[in-house]
């Protein structure tokens, strides 16, 4: 398994709970952030239920992460509240966990956006960034309730200075500048030694030398708790104190490492969704109180919905021997969603695979299914 490039904590936009986070770089990271490189693609993989031992070290999470890295994705994994070394406790409603996932989604978008600063020509707009939002087991339950990426980003752009959302933006900018600096250093080295490949020691340093980052980007005197922040509608007029003051203009005509002003347009993010071994729960459970239900309907009529809006390419993968939810129920649910998605949602049942993907050959079959889906035109 590849080692993460960065390991750090970020505050949840729900209530500032500290969440563990990792960023993994693919071998192609240098090409992706340099001119004329392949389109930058990122992914987030969410883990199973924390009270049952779920965390970002879960074997299925790690296997899917490795699969995505080999496909050229920059992958972010994280621990929900109450999992691993993340602070807090698992909630009964799932609402805080939805915000935890949204926190990492915002981090991913801003990190990937900042990596592209100065990489395009003056007469070109930056290419869309591919963002895969994935969840396994409990992680898929939270993913299905996640708002759309554009809705998540609107929450960040209307945040006040000193809040968790502002801290996420600054952390993404700092990490991206560090990665870009490493890319420039490696490019200079390759210029002196042209016989080195993209998998040279310098390239490996961007993806396999763990950098543990502590503390926060914002001065402690300026930090304010997210729970104490006023509603975004009450602070729209305070533009100088919002993240919008940092990202109100695109800086593609500037090429130094100090470029930090980026605007995230809706068209700049191409989202996909991947649900692995989703857990279907009855409507009476508190984990599915007001929100998007699994067992009936969709969210096509809900403004700002994400995966359940059925507007984005989606893959649902599960095993025929899943003991958490019967494959019959999973097939019925998946077929209904597929019929309503106009071909955007696909599903795959892996023979003999259980919920934990430990049977012989089933993980490889899952990975092949994911790769095939990702590479469809």
TrEMBL record:
SUPFAM superfamilies, alphabetized: alpha/beta-Hydrolases (SSF53474)
UniProt feature, compositional bias: Basic and acidic residues: 187-201, 220-233
Composition-biased stretches (Polar residues): 176-186, 202-211
Superkingdom of origin organism: Eukaryota
Region (Disordered): 175-239
Classification via PANTHER family: AB HYDROLASE-1 DOMAIN-CONTAINING PROTEIN, ALPHA/BETA-HYDROLASES SUPERFAMILY PROTEIN
The protein's name in its UniProt record: AB hydrolase-1 domain-containing protein
């Amino acid at each position: 398994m590849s080692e993460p490039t960065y390991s750090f904590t970020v505050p949840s936009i729900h209530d500032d709970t500290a969440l563990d986070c990792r960023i993994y770089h693919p071998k192609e990271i240098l090409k992706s952030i340099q001119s004329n490189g392949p389109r930058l693609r990122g992914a987030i993989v969410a883990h199973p239920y924390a009270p049952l031992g779920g965390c970002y070290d879960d074997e299925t999470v790690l296997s899917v992460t490795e699969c995505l890295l080999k496909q050229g994705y920059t992958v972010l994994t994280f621990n929900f509240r109450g999992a691993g070394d993340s602070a807090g406790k698992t909630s009964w409603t799932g609402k805080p966990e939805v915000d935890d996932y949204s926190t990492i989604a915002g981090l991913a978008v801003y990190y990937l956006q900042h990596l592209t600063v100065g990489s395009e020509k003056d007469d070109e707009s930056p290419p869309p960034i591919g963002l895969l939002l994935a969840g396994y087991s409990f992680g898929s339950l939270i993913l299905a309730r996640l708002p759309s990426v554009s809705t998540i980003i609107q929450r960040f752009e209307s945040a006040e200075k000193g809040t968790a959302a502002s801290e996420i933006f600054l952390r993404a900018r700092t990490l991206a500048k560090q990665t870009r600096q490493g890319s420039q250093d490696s490019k200079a080295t390759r210029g002196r030694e042209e016989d080195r490949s993209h998998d040279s020691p310098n390239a490996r340093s961007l993806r396999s030398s763990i950098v543990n980052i502590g503390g926060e980007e914002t001065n402690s005197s300026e930090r304010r708790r997210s729970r104490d922040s006023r509603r975004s509608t009450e602070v729209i007029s305070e533009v100088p104190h919002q993240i919008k003051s940092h990202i109100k203009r695109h800086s593609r005509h500037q090429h130094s490492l100090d470029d930090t002003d980026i605007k995230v347009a809706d068209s700049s993010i191409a989202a996909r969704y991947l649900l692995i071994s989703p857990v279907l729960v009855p409507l009476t459970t508190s984990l599915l109180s007001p929100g998007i239900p699994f067992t009936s309907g969709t969210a096509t009529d809900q403004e700002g919905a994400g995966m359940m809006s059925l507007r984005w390419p989606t893959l649902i993968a599960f095993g025929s021997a899943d003991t958490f939810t019967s494959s019959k129920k999973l097939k019925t649910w998946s077929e209904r969603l597929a019929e309503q998605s106009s071909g955007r949602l696909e599903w795959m049942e892996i023979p003999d695979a259980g919920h934990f993907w430990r049977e012989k050959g089933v993980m490889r079959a899952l990975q092949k299914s994911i790769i095939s889906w990702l590479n469809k035109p």
